[in-house]
Amino acid sequence: MKLLSIETSCDETAVSLLAxxxxxxxxxxxxxxxxxxxxxxxxxxxxxxxPAVAKREHAKNLVPLLASALEEAELMRESLQPLDAGxxxxxxxxxxxxxxxxxxxxAFIESxxxxxxxxxxxxxxxxxxxxxxxxxxxxKALSIAWDIPVAxxxxxxxxxxxxxxxxxxxxTYAIRDIELPLLALLISGGHTxxxxxxxxxxxxxxxxxxxDAVGEAFDKVARMxxxxxxxxxEVGKLAARARAASSRSVLDEDSSQVLPHRGPSSMKDGRExxxxxxxxxxxDDLDFSFSGLKTAVLYLLKERxxxxxxxxxxxxxxxxxxxxxxxxxKTATALESTGSRTLAIGGGVSANEYLREVFVKSIAxxxxxxxxxxxxxxxxxxxxxMIGIAGFYRAARxxxxxxxxxxxDGNRSLAEA
Length: 417
What we know:
Blueprint: E1 2-7, E2 12-22, E3 26-38, H1 40-43, H2 51-72, H3 85-94, H4 101-109, E4 119-125, H5 129-146, E5 150-154, H6 155-163, E6 166-167, E7 172-176, E8 182-187, E9 192-199, E10 202-208, H7 214-224, H8 231-244, E11 265-268, E12 271-274, H9 291-304, H10 309-338, E13 342-346, H11 353-366, E14 371-373, H12 384-396
Parallel strand pairs: 1-4, 4-5, 8-13, 13-14
Antiparallel strand pairs: 1-2, 2-3, 3-7, 6-7, 8-9, 9-10, 11-12
Helix pairs in contact: 2-4, 2-5, 3-5, 6-12, 7-8, 7-9, 7-10, 8-10
């Protein structure tokens, strides 16, 4: 099966072409074409993603990215292919709220042959609604022009399934031998959730953040430290420098024991060490809270006034340590309570090197028989490959959505995947 996949949930515009084969337990995917444009440089001046700007950039980028992906896959053939009046009218109506997209769409679609594609997969939530709608409407327009069915993909399902793949070289990925039940820890700028999958593509959310998502907390702390956007990776860099200068470890010998909150700072080896709280660490549930941790950083900085670069590094490390402690403890509790045999970690924050390191160590040492699945770094961020992987599973089930009912939903849950 050949799939065209489209991702526009936030500030990356992505289009991919994948060939997939197999079933839910054993599937292989070959990336035929992949094109992505990030809007980070554009949104940096706003200190975050500005939805109206993201929408505009998606509308501008989708046709060129589609052309690039088709060309890379060697599936683009130039030929005059005029649309009939009825199709043009339907497409024009579909794209009327995406300025400039209709003109670019018609110019391209009427100059190329219909490629041999079996299905279109598109992110229809969650995410920024204005951004999502551009991708959804683009998928609808392609479906009308080429008479190809559309599978709506939940963005979070894409993160879960892409974390299960192993690379087999030559742009080929495989999902095989995944033991259920599976526990997924989703950590990104918009989500922090623990999700249980007892059966393939059936999800139950068993824990979530009550306020800030972990990626959001990283970005807010970065702004407090006057770091550039996107802030999460910058906090990680500072923390890594502090950690390199100290042998201090996040965990004691017992993973359930973490550094207590003893106040704003303490002394260790002649250096001041910042101690931050671990919100909801010992609560009787699997929920998270990062607002208090973020606020503790804010108050500490207000008390200090100016801080040196070395102090910023140690504070970034203290923040990252606290995040790691909370994520580890909650995930360990969830693994034990659910009896999960597989732990999948997905989302943009899963690219954090320190979090990857501590989870690999913790699972190996304390959770015998649990398989840890973390995506390769190139699949941690928003991308169309993960949407194509999830779309393959949906299309294989015949889970297509009529164009009249296909909508973008910024708050779509995994229960609606």
